[in-house]
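hey m, so remember when u said the tokens were messed up on ur end? i reran from scratch. heres the input so u can diff it against urs
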Amino acid sequence: MFSLLFLIQALTTAAAYLPALVSGIVLYWLGQGVMLYFIASGRTQSFTDPGITLLVMIWAVIFLSYTLLLCYDCRALVLLAYLMILPYGIFRLSWRGFLGIALLTMAGYTTVVLVLHHQNRLMLVAGYELIIGAAFLISLMSYSLLGREIGVLREAYRRKNRQLREAMGRIEELAVRDELTGLYNRRYLLSSLERRQALANREGLPFVLAFVDIDHFKQINDQHGHKVGDEVLVELARLLRDSVREVDLVARYGGEEFVLLLNGLTLDTAGPALERLRKAVMKKSFSSAGLPLTVSAGVSQYHSGESSDELINRADRLLYDAKRG
């Protein structure tokens, strides 16, 4: 539309203005092409606004001011084009940015009018120019108010989306975490076990599964109450979590039973590690009642091709062998 306006002006104006009109068309398309290239190439993806909305709008205002300077006979069309720029930023700019564009637009229009008057190409009629300027300013401010309202709505939606993401994150966390101890739950353990099995089958990386069970836990609940029993579970869970590496996994299997998945270990290397853990439990006092505690463990190493149930059942049987011993 702007190029067509320039072309019409070129056909109806003096030859002296032709170079400026042609350069206007070239400058406009060159600028648009450069900005579109940067957007399409992905170079703006790291920006807060990948569409570089503010830059595009500033460029459009500057170009329209140049258009108005050369094509003042079509002032009504150019003023309409000024207003057409503003909706482009309604859903993208903050209201401050939107107000800044509106003020830049008014400043560009006023500057062109004063330059034209200085060049004796425009006779200023104060009342007429005042009416046009006031109507233009009111239109710009109306767009700014609309942009502010939409900006407030956009921020409210952004805040709600952020709260929704946080809530979904908490729900997902609750789905894989034991509520009391904060350890992973049985569901997450089984899914992780399947992934470890696949990795072991594919790359031959060993791992062991260890059942750790509190000895005589029922007596703690019976003699001291479930509150103390919960404290014991929480403190033991913390000790287990602090005793393993980041690549390992600790989960609460149920009741007073915990499971450790120890990556890269075999029975020979896992045995001493679990013995150190057993002794660390014996040295510590648990809960507000200062209770001594012992644990038993059953440890099995994964054999390629066996199922999760086979691995778990083998460790479970070994756990009860340990308790009987």
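this time it looks ok to me. The chain has two domains: 2-168, 186-324. if urs says something different then somethings off w ur setup not the seq
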